[in-house]
User: Fold this.
Amino acid sequence: MEATHALVRDMIKHPINISSKRFIEHTNAYYQWLREEAPVYKGKLSVLTVYLLSRYNDCVELLMDRRFVRNRTTVTGGKNRVPFPVPKAISLVAQNMILADEGQRLSEDELVSMVLLLILAGFETTVHLITNAVVTLLLHPVQLQRLRDQPDLMSSAVEEIVRYNGPVQSTKPAYASEAITLHGVTIPRGAMVLPLLGAANRDPAVFERPEVFDIARTPNRHLGFGQGIHYCLGAPLARMETRIALQTLLKRNPNLRLAVEPKALKLQTIPTWHRYERLPVVLG
Ligand code: HEM
Assistant:
């Protein structure tokens, strides 16, 4: 354990930037270091400064604490605008929606939010949950066989996949509405804070042998769908889609296997996501 710590310590570049390739390639080692050494860490999300929380209980508290707000403008004042230019494709969709729905006009912000919701919340997440489910099972053949032998473990397996290898590694940013001190670190008013759900999901204070993938794990109170008032609206649908996809894929393909070496599976460099560039498999 000590040796691992030394390796991780030497590997880490400060300030930790969660957008970096290095962080994404060694996420779980970084998570371990953060949980143990710096549970409130002033890091970077690309060029932005962000406070990172990595312990399970701190993440839960943040998600339940009304002093952390989601709308940046509540803290900073100013207009309630989407903080980036609206892409043309979205403007076109918005115009069509306005025309199609005379009399019940939504504001531009509402329309942009709705399109982002449909694309980001409802599509990308589940595609990558299913992909991560297949990768994780193929990399754990004993657990895969156990699932084939005991299909009633499917729901529990999906929960464990979300915990162990979930596609969404953080919630949307929260902003401190006042200065908040935690573990001796003061998060200033207005600062951006991210609860690292993926780190919380491997916190040994809550999960026994968290690094072990166990499709029958119980209890399994993971944070892979968030927590509190922003708890994932689509969680039941995402769970159902993943169950059906896995059931069908495993039934039709008793010899399903990876078509490449595991080390050839590359993660996309997208902060707060855990998603593979591609997943080549052999059906059969
Ligand atoms: C059918 C697919 C899905 C739909 C329609 C959906 C929809 C949503 C919506 C609307 C929210 C925002 C709730 C709010 O702000 O009050 C949300 C939050 C969230 N979703 Fe999903 N989601 C889906 C799949 C997933 C999947 C597969 C994951 C990861 C395993 C996931 C993880 C999350 C997380 C972590 C949050 C909390 C975000 C936050 O607190 O900022 N979602 N989801």
Summary: The chain has one domain: 11-282. Residues 108-139 form the longest helix (32 residues). The radius of gyration is 20 Å. The first strand starts at residue 40 and ends at 45.
